[in-house]
Design goal:
heterodimer; A: alpha/beta; two-stranded antiparallel ribbon; 7 helices; B: alpha+beta; 13 helices
Chain lengths: 261, 481
């Protein structure tokens, strides 16, 4: 009887291993750029909460763009994208604009915009949206640092996301990092673009700092988003222009009470 | 009751006692006061009367869904097909009287074969249930005033020695029309049902409705839910026979004290099963700003499908895709009910060049989703984005400095931060659509700008520089990724 049990157990374990491997493969996405993908050996976890901060008020556009780019990496199909935004965040930083989103690769038909009056509404809508397998991705954009977005709340979101394998992107505008359950945390700044000729601004370029990564290393990259191919491309910082060296300082060293602006 | 009519306070209604004492409607208050020193008066409020009538009409929904207002003091109920629910006519009328009497109201009713006859009989005769065979006789006996005709015509008829409706109805029509106009004849026809006069019900008649009358008013919310559940089972069973699903459902709660509360839910696609509907309804009930109050209990609970739509037979297939779409629709319905239809939106393209009008955000539950965003013709693959990802509404004023007048700004100040421009593209001229816009809209010259820190902006100058506007105004309209 013992032998039978052992054999069954072995089989079970083998199955589990296979399943895990398959799950890992299914629920991961990459950046499409070798250098950054090296940091994430198994890719970015798909069913998880990723947090994206605008470093300063003026970086709201860049942070939003980066979030959209990650959405497109994580779910390249036609599945619906829910954008849950607190009213004040939209008033302060502008409303999502479909033609522009289309320009960077997001089909507006995928978009469902949910306007929420309070951060509580945002979180409730988020947990509902994450609980459904058909959701392609959820962008969660409360304004500033609401009290209700604490460790417990973010952990709940993470658990739901893991169960359904739906990616959640916490877009933090006007906020400073605080402890929560996010799997990765990005600090995004706008970076000078490579002119598309005649001194015209080029494709979106992000100065992205990974300040937390539960799966491994952190790092700092300057990434260009290729809107047509939906891939990131690391670019060398322009030499000789006014690109400031990445003046990265961990936000944790800031006094907790002071906002970046 | 008094009210100010033609600049004098006049009696607008008198009670039984006052009428016996010789006071009458239309009498000046001063005259009445002269006769009786101690007069209880109250000011009339037609507005409040109207509100009360509306409430009463709501309440009358318990008898029939077809209730019309007959302002200022009447209600017309179409009881066709509803009588058997109460046994017979006299039971129903008795029920109305008994219940309204409990609320302290005195009512006069008449049940006749058409609305005009019932109305006239209720107002100008003792009313009651009029036997079909007796109806003509009863109508003939009505005084002329019940014809609702102009004062001078009425006086004319009286002068001719005509007193009752019957006296007129036997006269030749041509002569009547020639002398008193078509109005009188029309009224006569309506009264005798020779001309169909439909009533205009206050509310949309539901396609299908199910109700339950309780022997004892329900107070506990659990039992209310229980009733709702069994009602909706029945409702959907009926809808299913017709291969229909509900797009709008209304639950009505008739409270024992006469109050009626209605709660309606709308969905993005036809709902065909209790589970989905019930979840939406519960969601709605839990987010009501003014929660449902059972008070003394509900004595009738009704569930009605207001709007239905052909439902595709639900494929119970194992197709993941279909199931996921279904789940998303449920999610959209749920969020719309909790946050409001105007907060759960889908962008739809609009054919215009004006940036802020190029997208309309439509409630995600509305079903028009056939429009497709086409890639802007001027946007070539490989080109950087031409439109911002976030748009300010309205555009924000900025202070711009420029070196060459008709060119992109060299720097600008927005929200007290100065941005030094390193890259610029433009102008892209967007002219107002004179065939749509109000006069006065100005042409805008848009520029894509990038500052020395890599932030990308969409700004515009209002007005044409060539026209010599001395101080052009600059706005920031959006930000790029």
């Amino acid at each position: 009887m013992t032998t039978v049990d052992l054999a069954a157990l072995r089989r079970d374990i083998a199955c589990l291993g296979e399943e895990n491997a398959r799950a890992a493969q299914r629920s991961a996405f990459d950046f499409g750029d070798n250098d950054i993908d090296r940091v994430f050996r198994q890719g970015m976890q798909r069913g998880a909460v990723h947090e994206i901060f605008a470093e300063e008020a003026g970086d709201a556009g860049a942070a939003t763009g980066f979030a959209i780019a990650l959405v497109l990496r994580a779910s390249p199909d036609q599945s619906p994208v829910l954008w849950l935004e607190e009213d004040f965040a939209a008033q302060e930083n502008g409303f999502p604009y479909a033609p522009g989103l289309q320009n960077i690769g997001l089909d507006p038909q995928r978009l469902i915009i949910v306007r929420c009056a309070s951060p509580q509404d945002v979180l409730k809508a988020a947990s509902d949206s994450l609980g459904i397998r058909g959701t392609g991705a959820v962008i969660i954009a409360p304004w500033s640092n609401p009290k209700c977005l604490d460790l417990t709340a973010s952990r709940k979101l993470l658990l739901t996301a893991q169960q359904t394998d739906v990616p959640a992107f916490l877009l933090r505008l006007g906020a400073y990092p605080s402890e929560n359950a996010a799997v990765t945390r990005w600090l995004i700044r706008a970076a000078p673009s490579q002119s598309s000729g005649a001194n015209a601004p080029g494709h979106p370029v992000f100065d992205a700092t990974l300040i937390r990564n539960r799966q491994g290393m952190t790092g700092h990259w300057i990434l260009q988003w290729e809107s047509d191919d939906h891939v990131f491309r690391q670019i060398e910082p322009f030499s000789g222009t006014m690109v400031s060296a990445p003046s990265y300082r961990p936000p944790q060293t800031r006094k907790s009470g002071t906002r970046p602006y | 009751m008094v009210d100010k009519l033609a600049n004098a306070l006049r009696l607008t209604a008198v009670d039984e006692k006052a009428a016996k004492a010789g006071l009458y409607k239309g009498m000046a208050l001063t005259d009445a006061r002269a006769q009786f020193e101690k007069l209880d008066i109250a000011f009339a409020s037609p507005r409040k009367d109207a509100v009360l009538l509306e409430k009463l009409a709501d309440w009358c929904d318990r008898y029939t869904p077809l209730v019309a207002l007959d302002e200022p003091h009447g209600l017309i109920l179409d009881l066709t097909g509803c009588i058997h629910l109460f046994g017979d006519e006299s039971n129903l009328i008795e029920d109305i009287h008994k219940r309204l009497h409990r609320y302290g109201m005195i009512v006069r009713t008449a049940l006749a074969s058409n609305p005009a006859a019932a109305r006239a009989l209720a107002r100008h005769s003792p009313g009651g249930i009029i036997d079909r065979n007796d109806e003509t006789r009863r109508l003939y006996a009505l005084p002329l005033i019940s014809l609702d005709i102009e004062e001078n015509h009425l006086a004319g008829l009286k002068r001719a020695g005509l007193r009752n409706v019957g006296d007129i109805d036997v006269l030749p029509r041509a002569a009547l029309t020639a002398r008193f106009g078509t109005n009188l004849v029309n009224h006569l026809d309506a009264l005798f049902g020779r001309q169909d006069e439909p009533i205009t019900p206050r509310r949309i008649v539901p396609v299908c409705m199910i109700e339950r009358r309780m022997a004892e008013p329900l107070i506990a919310m659990e039992s209310v839910e229980h009733v709702l559940l069994s009602l909706s089972d029945e409702l959907f069973r009926r809808l299913q026979q017709r291969v229909e699903g509900a797009r709008e459902i209304e639950a009505s709660f008739f409270r024992a004290d006469g109050n009626v509360r209605r709660i309606s839910i709308q969905t993005g696609r036809p709902v065909t099963e209790t589970k989905t509907m019930f979840r939406l309804l519960k969601e709605r009930l839990s987010t009501l700003s003014d929660p449902l109050d059972a008070g003394y209990g509900f004595d009738i609970i009704r569930l009605a499908a207001i709007r239905v739509e052909q439902s595709q037979a639900i494929q119970k297939s194992l197709d993941d895709r279909a199931q996921e779409t279904e789940e998303i629709n449920t999610l959209v319905d749920r969020l719309s009910i909790r946050l409001g239809n105007s907060r759960v939106l889908r962008p739809l393209p609009v054919d215009t060049h004006i940036p802020e009008h190029a997208v309309s955000l439509e409630p995600a539950t509305s079903s028009k989703q056939d429009m497709v965003f086409e890639r802007a013709p001027e946007h070539n693959p490989g080109n950087p984005p031409e439109r911002p990802i976030r748009l300010f509404q309205p555009p924000e004023r900025i202070d711009a400095t420029f070196e060459v007048p008709d060119a992109a700004p060299a720097r600008f100040t927005w929200r007290r931060v100065q941005h030094i421009i390193t890259m610029a593209e433009g102008p892209e001229r967007i002219a107002p659509e004179w065939w749509r816009e109000h006069a006065g809209a100005l042409t805008r010259d848009y520029y894509r700008l990038e500052d020395n820190r890599g932030r990308r902006f969409w700004v515009f100058r209002e007005g044409l520089y060539e026209r010599g506007d001395p101080t052009p105004r600059w706005f920031l309209h959006g930000i790029f990724a």
